[in-house]
Structure formats: structure tokens, C-alpha cells
Design goal:
325 residues; alpha+beta; TIM Barrel; Immunoglobulin-like; 8 helices; 18% helix; CehA/McbA family metallohydrolase; PHP_domain; Pol/His_phosphatase_N
Length: 325
Amino acid sequence: MKNKIYLDRNKTTYKGNLHLHTTWSDGSLPADQVVEAFKAKGYHFISLSDHEVYTRTTEFNGEDFITLPGMERGGLNLVADKDPGYHFGVLDDPTVEPEQKRFEHLQTFPTPIPWEGDHSPQDLIDKMRAHGNLVVFNHPEWHLTRFEDMVKYDGFFAIEIYNHATEWSTSSSYGAAYWDHALQNGKRVFGTAADDSHEHNPNWNIPEYGGGWVQVQADALTPASIVSNLKEGRFYSSSGPEIYDLRVEDGQLAIECSPCKFIMFKAFPLRGPFVGNFENGEPLTFASMTIEEDMQYIRVECVDFEGKVAWSNPVFVADLLQEGE
């Protein structure tokens, strides 16, 4: 079995949000104020992902902060025997040569309600990719997406597994069950966390800004470097804890993290261990497990004492068993 480093404690990481809204769609703040709100919380990059409006800004970019072009597309389906709805995060991929012209700044699109033909979810995914974009399957639990519908779609690189706005507003934020279902059905997809922030009210007990993010390991704070490492899964997602290191050495998967209550290894089809100092309640900052060759994938969840979670991306065991690099 190969040794492999997935997240390296010695490499730089950048904090970002791939899902938020401004007054270009249904957000309450203009783009410049949204940028300042996230910069104040220590973010390095965001995507101004407004509904059906593509954004491509450079005026907010600097040495310590950038914006990534993108938008959110989707619709609600009123046809009873079809998937009840979808939203897709659309993120410009500067590392590819698109089949069709890239979208322009503030280019607008119709919302398909209900969809059929060219407005089907799969056709929409294919079209977004043809124009040089990555696609994220956003908040499936909020949509009550059917598991059987999700696995029939192809071409999205990640599933939004935590959505902060739907957590505090409708308690429908977690998409990890959809993620596992997709992984168990052979899809190699990553998991993202995001704010999905729309409103700004400093008097709210649970603010929309800064509740969910991705932490990307990259060589530089540039769109190409950030997106390239997102595509390779060199990031983790979080609503609180930090993951410092994730690697396989001598058949052991080991993780280092900020102090947590417990660490769960989510493995399939064989169950992974649930690790915690249950007798004395001392926090954990390290855990490891033995990898079995019969396992399909392993992902790790680090849960802190407030119930907040950091999610690693999957380790695909077959990759570790292949000969050569």
C-alpha cells in the first residue's frame, strides 16, 4: 500500500467561501460590503455566487484576497413525479480550455421552473462545464433531493455537505448522507461547506457570515492555484475545527486537528473507528486507523466540544493499492 499525503501541516492553506449572495440577486448587501465582511473574518477568497447572475470581478483582488468567478443556478420543480428541485454552484475553472465561450460579468440566465429538455439538471451540469466551470451540488437536504436522483447525475465535482444559512433557518444543513450515498455508488466527489449568506443583521444571535467554509492547501493565492487544488481534493471543509494534517503511512490513515471531542473515521463498506477520550473528556488532536484493502473509501469527521465539525475529503483506497505513482 502506498504512502500518500493529502493535507500537509507544513503547507499554506487559504480560507474561502464558495456560496453567498449579494444585491446582484437576493442578498441584502452589495458586493463591496460582502467582500469587506468576509475579509474581516479572515477569509482569503470568495465566489460571488448570485442566483442566475454570473460574476467575474477583479476590482476586489489584492495580495491577501481574491474573488473567484461564478454563480448559482437551479430551480424548483413542480412536477410531482420528478426530482423536487436543485441548485448548482457554478465556479469558473481557469485551468481548462472551455468548449464554449466563458460567461461574462453580470451575464444573466433564466430559472427553469419546472424543467424539461435542455433545462434538466444533467443538461445544465453539462452546459456549465462546457463553458469552463466546475459544478457543486448545493444543499441537497434543503431541497429534499431524492437519493436515487442524485446518483443518476454526473459531472459535479463536489456536494455541499454543510450549508450554514439552512442550518440556522430551517435546520436542513447537512448533506453528508447524500455524500456517502454518492460515494457508495461509485462517484468520486468531494464535500464543501459554505455560508450561503443572504442577509446581514448584526443583532442576530447566529450570523450568516463565517459559519461554513473550505480551507484549501495551495502554493499561491491565485484563481488557478485555488481551483486546481479544489479539483484535486486538497482541502477540507469546516464549521469550526481545523485539520492540520492527513496522510497515509505504512497502512495507517492518520489525522491531526485542533482540539476536538471525538474523531470519526467514516469507512465503507467496513466501519471505521469512533475515537474519543470518553473516560476523562480530554480533547483529541490526533487519531489513526488501519486501512483494510476491502474498504472503498474513508473520510474523517472531527467534532469539537460545541458540536462543530471539520470534514476531510475521501481517501479512495483503490488509489493506494495501484502500482507506480
